[in-house]
Amino acid sequence: MIRAAQSVFVFSLYLFVVGIGLVAVPNTVLTPLGFSPSAEFWPRVIGVLTLCLAWYYFSAARAGSDQFFRWTVQVRIGVFVVFGALVLLRLAPAPLALLGTVDLLAALWTAWALGRGRTSGAS
Predict the structure, then answer these.
(1) CA 98 to chain centre
(2) Which residues of the chain have pLDDT under 70?
(3) Rg of the chain over CA atoms, in angstroms?
(4) Helix, strand, coil shares of the chain as percentages rounded to 5?
(5) Spatial separation of the C-alpha atoms in residues 108 and 4, rounded to whole Å
(6) DSSP character for 35?
(7) Any idea where the domains of the chain sit in the sequence?
(8) Which residues fall within 8 angstroms of residue 33, CB to CB, at 6 or more apart?
(9) Is 9 exposed, middle or buried (0-12, 13-18, 19+ CB in 10 A)?
(10) DSSP reduced 3-state for 92
(11) What pLDDT was estimated at residue 116?
(12) Distances (CA, A) of 74 to 59, 77, 90, 108
């Protein structure tokens, strides 16, 4: 497996955990991030969408889709920027920036791995 695929695979696992958490126990995910507990259905809808993204990342990692990996770098950096802006504008609680930071670090890992090419050994 190429290094970029490994980074995207690990990110897919993170997305699976967040998505399952939002679907099954949304307040357990939301309250540590500074959001008020919610009885609304929206966190669960976001959880389902997160699970969809997780599946795309997981599938692309297994397929070794370099083009997809490049797209994710751009998007995940964008998530960091937007989440940071929301926090700076006081439109979201500060811990949301932590999620953006996870996206940024994962994007940088993938970008680095794309620059390094394939690992030696079996995939």
Answers:
(1) 11
(2) 1, 117-123
(3) 15
(4) 80, 0, 20
(5) 10
(6) P
(7) 3-115
(8) 93, 95, 96, 98, 99
(9) middle
(10) coil
(11) 82
(12) 19, 5, 24, 10
